[in-house]
Specification:
This protein is of the alpha+beta class. It is built from 15 helices and 13 strands. A hairpin with a 1-residue loop joins strand 11 and strand 12. Helix 5 runs parallel beside helix 15 and helix 10 crosses helix 13. The protein is globular.
Length: 476
């Protein structure tokens, strides 16, 4: 029996000590509140700034009827995550905007529909499938290594955010849909990748805009987004048609890719083709951005520390030997710890800068009476840089993740928590191990700009504005 099919214990409902309107608030405008001048792409920085100024929780108003409370309490965020989808939802405009854009899949869907879609994705991305998929993963990683080897020999500076997106698009497409677009070797970039690059920033902007102006007065960028959406939907439908045509030769115990696993389950779970399309696009978007941005932020710290590179190079070569990439599935386990390079970067530069919830009914949260349909944003960085949780919190120290007393896993919500924990976390960890071990075993690296020039942009996941890196082949 699925344990998440039953609602967890509710938050204790004690008499409230305060009400929403008692909380401090930044200066705002009549009616519009804090909406004028609010930049969705830098929203996390505004939330963090006001948290330092006012303390938490504090309240905001992003337009008429759009009430917001901002917290920095990691334990409370964990508790609310366990309350979903029964006491709280992801809320706000996430589900309606996702539905409007045609990818209201596991990430955004709520209620009973979420439980069926959860089973669909969790079973499709089951870790037991990865042994059969490892050859594809290793081949795409070796393709990336060969590209970087050519660039290093030519003395090129690589924009690593773009490089890593090419890699994650190829991996996600190949493992999720059985299609390898080979964007790594395509100098112009795959057409689907270029379309995907427009969607997450547009989604973030539309979610944080309280009214859908683009339905009545679309701007040129809105029309570009609509064209990109049409192209991505066409790609998803073509993938589904191809996979369905090959179902007669499928082995349910060893699906060739995640979409095949989805289609094998679709009828039993009572899901429509629209549900499958929504989750295909969700996998494309989430699989591209989150892992690529996590790895890009990792390079900011690793490239600046040659002694760290040498220590981890020795670890990588002890596993890889003379091979350019991890040679077999069993060896992935010997690379355990390479993901800590990324986890430590995510602690300082969280790609999920805040988690959002919405109250489904009038309730009490942390002793505060909260009206129904209030948005609760939990900013993540304060807990991740709290010296009580992480000694020397501003120091990049990936080894701390192997020392239980040196980190607090309860504050690390980059893969979510509770029933909504990320189903792709195993794939993300494998990608981190493969890419970082290959990179450190083969190359020396240095950042090709002043780190102060790199800005944080919250295009639904927090990405660097740039990450130029120069690679040099390291002699054996």
């Amino acid at each position: 029996m699925d344990p998440i099919a039953h609602p967890p214990a509710a938050l204790p409902q004690t008499a409230p000590e305060r009400h929403w309107h008692d909380l401090p608030s930044p200066p705002g405008w009549p009616l519009l509140g804090h909406l004028p001048g609010f930049d969705p792409l830098r929203s996390h920085l505004a939330f963090e700034h006001w948290a330092r100024e006012l303390g938490t929780p504090y309240r905001m108003q992003l337009g008429p009827g759009y009430r917001v409370m901002v917290f920095d309490d990691a334990e409370l965020a964990q508790q609310l995550s366990r309350e979903r989808p029964h006491g709280f939802s992801r809320g706000g405009r996430i589900q309606p905007v996702a539905a409007e854009m045609g990818f209201n899949g596991l990430f955004s869907v709520e209620g009973e529909a979420w439980q069926a879609q959860r089973r669909l994705i969790m079973q499709s991305l089951n870790a037991t499938h990865f042994k059969g998929w490892f050859g594809t993963l290793a081949g795409i990683t070796q393709r990336l290594q060969a590209r970087w080897q050519r660039a290093a020999a030519a003395g090129e500076v690589l924009e690593m955010t773009d490089e890593l997106k090419r890699y994650t698009v190829d991996v996600t497409s190949a493992l999720a849909f059985g299609r390898d677009p080979n964007t790594i070797d395509d100098a112009q970039g795959d057409r689907v990748q270029r379309h995907l690059a427009l969607l997450f920033p547009a989604f973030m902007k539309r979610v944080m805009t309280p009214f859908s102006y683009w339905k009545w007065l679309p701007l040129p960028q809105d029309r570009r987004v609509d064209r990109a959406l049409a192209a991505v939907h066409a790609h998803a439908r073509a993938c589904i048609a191809d996979a369905r045509a090959q179902l007669s030769t499928a082995d349910p115990s060893a699906p060739r890719h995640a979409l095949e696993a989805m289609l094998l389950q679709q009828q039993a779970l009572g899901l429509s083709d629209a549900d499958v399309v929504a989750n295909v696009i969700t996998l494309l978007l989430a699989g591209e951005d989150t892992s690529a941005h996590s790895l890009a932020w990792t390079l900011l710290y690793v490239a600046a520390d040659p002694p760290l590179q040498q220590r981890w190079r020795e670890r990588a070569r002890a596993v890889l030997g003379a091979a350019p990439v991890c040679p077999r599935h069993e060896a992935v386990h010997a690379l355990a710890g390479f993901e800590h390079l990324a986890f430590e970067a995510l602690r300082l530069r969280p790609v999920v800068p805040f988690n959002g919830y919405e109250t489904l009914r009038d309730t009490t949260v942390a002793g505060i009476a909260v009206p129904a349909r209030t948005k609760l944003f939990f900013i993540n960085r304060p807990a991740l840089t709290d010296p009580a949780r992480y000694p020397e919190p501003q120091r990049y120290d990936p080894e701390r993740w192997a020392r239980e007393c040196a980190h607090d896993s309860r504050a690390f919500l980059q893969f979510g928590a509770g029933p909504r924990v990320c189903p792709g976390r195993h794939l993300a960890t494998v990608e981190m191990r493969l890419v970082l071990s290959m990179l450190l075993a083969q190359f020396e690296m240095e950042l090709a700009c002043d780190p102060a020039q790199i800005e944080e942009i919250n295009a639904f996941t927090m990405m660097p504005s740039r990450m130029p890196v120069r690679l040099r082949p390291h002699p054996r």
